[in-house]
Amino acid sequence: MKKMAVTLVSLLTATTLAACGSTSTPKETSSATPAATAAATAAPAKADAKPVKLRIYAQYADEDTKTPYDYAVAELKKEMPNVELELDIQAQDDGQKLKTYAATGNLPDIFQAGLDIIDTFKKSNNILVLDDYVTKFGFKDKMQPSAMNTLVTDDGHTYAFPYAGNEVALLYYNKDLFQQNGVKVPTTYDEMMTAVKAFNAKGITPLSIFAKEKWPCVALYDMFVTRAEPGGINKLDKGTAKAGDPAYKTAADNIIQLVKAGMLPKGATNLNYDQAAALYHEGKAAMFINGQWEIEAATAALGDKAGYMYLPAADAAAYEKGKTAFSGSGGPGGYAVSANTKDKELAAKVASFISLKYAEYKYTNRSNPIVATKVDKPIVKQFPPMMDQLSKDIPKITSTTAFSWGLSNPKFKAALEDAIQNLMTGNYTSDQFVKDLDKAAVTAK
Questions:
Q1: How many structural domains comprise the chain?
Q2: Which residues on adjacent β-strands are paired with residue 112?
Q3: Residues 148, 154: contact at Cβ < 8 Å?
């Protein structure tokens, strides 16, 4: 896979906030970067503004984390020239260093936190509830409506200002293969079946998938479910839907029918990412499933031939309605504030500002539209075509579901992954699928 570490690091998300970086401390604080120094020179502190130093624990490991952070700090110097940020680089240790800080009463004023840290620090009263500040600073108004799940946790509160939006699973296709072989890009299941048969007749793999890994199998199934039930696998995970419900059983039936018709390459459940991607990148497969992080590799391999399609549905009306329902998700996380910081409002204001500017730079300078907040500044680095399409789709998204690694019930997750992977073999009935998941739902409680 190319390489899922990218996604797992960026998730929760990503989604996105797994620890990344070095355990070493920089020789200079972040405020001493060239950009920040220039900003400080251009915007001297007001005479009546008392200098304040805040310690911040943040990712600072590569171009994708250093440049947006430096930009945010430089912008902060313009807005709040009296505030100096002392950077403590986030360690690549699954949050252990931060948890040690909390246990010893040495938490930074501001720190990056994913859902694991949020849940842990809620119990120990080490993280500040930001509900009032989200409203006071107008942060909620700046959120992408489709990314509100990254702002508010299941208990209805906000503990971090998010900058990363929802990652999504996409159904990629080779435009030339469809055009050259006279195959219509499918909008319905019947058209999908027609495409599968047409490509098989030409010796072309209809859809490549690295089904040796279970999450792409779950993503494909989730895509089919969301055409009728936007809640997808997330509702199964939470127990608000059952595998026997029409949308879920029908999705299983549709996949079984398509697999039996030859939708997937032979031995799909033994293919890894490199093998499955090669079929698509080399023009031997018409479609391919992966997350939006595949856009760069697909564009490099196929150029303008590569695109992603909206998912086929039962009929034209369901297809149009389903265009805004995406498979994939993110989770709460971003810049959080210590409950024990001296000036809570100032720390929250700085955390909010840094998050907004971090997302702004990612969007305008890193060609990354997967951000939680709206950006109204012009793009510096143009998006490649598929990313441009995604940047236009994101504000329209009405629902996301979940990636399998984001499911909350480990026992049910394992059963769901196994059952859906079995769907990819064509030797598994929807009745057995429902039976296995119903049994897992009971035992996982």
A1: 2
A2: 335
A3: no
